[in-house]
Design a protein that fits this description.
Blueprint: E1 7-9, E2 15-20, H1 31-39, E3 43-47, H2 64-81, E4 84-90, H3 92-103, E5 109-113, E6 135-137, H4 145-150, E7 156-158, H5 162-173, E8 185-188, H6 199-207, E9 213-216, H7 231-243
Parallel strand pairs: 2-3, 2-4, 4-5, 5-8, 8-9
Antiparallel strand pairs: 1-3, 6-7
Helix pairs in contact: 3-5
Length: about 250
């Protein structure tokens, strides 16, 4: 999937942002946000989740542990080059930003977007698939505008990969895990999200221990808000938040 090659944009302010996309998608999903942040001087690395950006079969052998291992690696590589590193992500990527912040208190700040602690029971991830079903087909057709260009995902998705997200959500909800997050946090959760139950954003905001935190809940934008008409509001507010972190 050449369109989902990882992307690194070098900035000018000496600060870096790691961006992680959502499950079944790819690094291109975060490119518009990466370009916007880079315009403000940030070095940005838009990376692939483990098992993504290659071939669907790779997801047959990918679980939560691999998601975490890849995110840890990507963060460690940026940290070698930059003293100040922020981590942001959409959906599964947002959950991983929370995980990394809990494990690495030196992270300068996080931007979890549409990060589910609970999934809408009607979304494709939460469906009850037959036990003998290996692949779920999700067509690329029907996309328009910026999403048509950047929301590039596997069309045949191994259903076993959905367990990786459930396992990650379970980690975040277990034993006050989120209380370990103490860095500044800008949480984005649209009210019309049909994948992540919108109350997830409020729970994240109330659960983390960060002294500096903000919850932005626009009325519209859907789950994939980084590729909708509301994206620029999210991007601008993200930059404002990052610029105000001392």
């Amino acid at each position: 999937m050449k369109h989902n090659n990882q992307l690194f944009l070098e900035g000018t302010n000496g600060k870096a942002v790691l961006l992680i996309h959502g499950i079944t998608s790819g690094a291109s999903q975060m490119v518009p946000m990466a370009q916007f942040l880079n315009d403000y001087g940030y070095s940005v690395h838009s990376v692939n989740l483990a098992g993504h950006g290659t071939y669907p079969d790779d997801l047959l052998h990918t679980g939560c542990r691999e998601f975490i291992k890849k995110a840890e690696y990507d963060y460690s590589q940026l940290k070698k080059e930059y003293d100040t590193v922020f981590v942001g992500g959409l959906s599964t990527g947002g959950c991983l930003s929370l995980y990394l912040a809990a494990k690495h208190p030196e992270i300068a700040g996080i931007i979890p977007i549409s990060s589910p602690l609970f999934l809408d029971e009607n979304c494709f991830i939460a469906q009850k698939y037959p036990e003998d079903m290996v692949y779920f087909h999700r067509s690329m057709e029907g996309k328009y505008g910026i999403a048509k260009k950047y929301h590039v995902h596997y069309e045949d998705i191994p259903v076993v990969i959905f367990k990786a997200l459930y396992d990650l959500m379970d980690i975040l909800k277990k034993d006050d895990f989120l209380k370990q997050v103490k860095c500044p946090a800008f949480i984005v959760q649209t009210k019309d999200d049909a994948v992540s139950v919108p109350k997830s954003g409020e729970i994240i905001y109330d659960s983390i221990s960060s002294e500096v935190k903000e919850l932005y809940m626009p009325e519209t934008g859907t789950h994939n808000v980084v590729l909708t008409d509301r994206r620029l509001d999210v991007f601008r507010k993200t930059v404002e938040f990052l610029e105000n972190i001392k």
